[in-house]
Amino acid sequence: MTKKLKQMPKWLNGIVNLAFYLCLLAAILVVLQVFVVTSFRIPSDSMEPAMLPGDYILVDKCSAGARLFDVLSALDRKEVTIRRMPGWRDFKREDVLVFNFPYQPHRWDSIAFDVMKYYVKRCVAIPGDTLEIRNGFYRIRGLNEPVGCLEAQKGIAQLPDSGVPGIVMGTYPWNEELGWTIKEFGPLVVPAKGQVVKMDFRAWLLYRSLINREQDSHLRVDAGGRVLLGDSVISEYCFCENYYFMAGDKAVNSQDSRYWGLLPETFIVGRAWRIWKSEDPEDGNMRWKRTLKRIE
Questions:
Q1: Model's pTM, two decimal places?
Q2: Are 254 and 121 in contact (CB under 8 A)?
Q3: Can you give the pLDDT at residue 230?
């Protein structure tokens, strides 16, 4: 009996140590997922061939800075302030980014943060770029190199100007006077933080949802063509945040910036880095050749 009593503290000590290390491991995993890397499953084919439905990807959150915000308030759909920690690189053209979809369902005139709704697209224009689409091909002014998935752009170029059933030709900002389509679009200046734009009717069309969110106010145009922010007439505006233009690699089947507009930087989760697992959604079989494939 005495021997059993002496052995009990060692047994309890082992349980306590195990519980401690399990809690420590759980805390490390949470920190890694919040600040360093996280995983997402690709549900659609909008990023083929770079990513396929059933791919599980690792997303680098730390190189450009992980985000900090009140998750509970975001889950309750309340307004939250999103801050980004320091990183060692900026988001670049051709980066494949995971982000929170920035607009409300069926209301692309109002930016809203949905912490449970994620998209993955390729960045084709960064803050300060001037983007155009000519005959279906993306062009950045001053840049001779092509951007985006060229094969998909070739497919858009072959579409008749009148369009075909199943493909929406009209685009953001959905204005008949501009007449922008997925074949002929822009020029569109992608705002950078601190960049000043002249405010006129065209700027109001392109940037009203961004400015409304930044200022928590209402941007409008009066009968005389003047742009008003609240009750004040403004002739120019200085942006408070960086924005990006995102595109799907499978352009004919991608709900991207051509349709809903520009992406605020604070909505970006991080850069898609590698495929760590891939399952065929039809039969559940592993696609081993895609395991640990780098996303380019």
A1: 0.90
A2: yes
A3: 87
State how far the Cα of 58 lies from the Cα of 294, in Å rounded to an integer.
10
CB 199 within 8 A of CB 237: yes
CB of 206 within 8 A of CB of 239? no
How far apart (Å, rounded) are the C-alpha atoms in residues 239 and 103?
Answer: 19
Dihedral angle over CA of 98, 102, 106, 107, nearest 10: -170
DSSP of 94-137, one letter per residue?
T-EEEEE--EETTEEEEE---TT-EEEEEEEE-TT-EEEEETTE
Any residues with CB less than 8 A from the CB of 16 and at least 6 apart, and which?
Answer: none
Q: What is the pLDDT of residues 66-98, one digit of tens each?
A: 999 888 898 888 888 999 999 999 999 999 999
Surface-to-core class of residue 248, CB atoms within 10 Å of its CB (0-12 exposed, 13-18 middle, 19+ buried): buried
Q: Which residues contact 235 (CB under 8 A, 6 or more apart)?
A: 198, 199, 227
Q: Distance between CA 54 and CA 284 in Å, rounded? A: 9
Domain chopping of the chain, boundaries: 1-35, 37-191+243-294, 196-238
Pick the CATH number of 37-191+243-294 from 3.40.50.10300, 2.10.109.10, 3.40.50.620, 3.50.50.60: 2.10.109.10
Length of the chain: 296
* 183: three-class secondary structure by DSSP: coil
Q: How far apart are CA 184 and CA 14, in angstroms?
A: 69
**In Å, how far from its chain's centre is CA 160?**
30
Q: Does an H or E element contain 264, and which?
A: strand 263-264
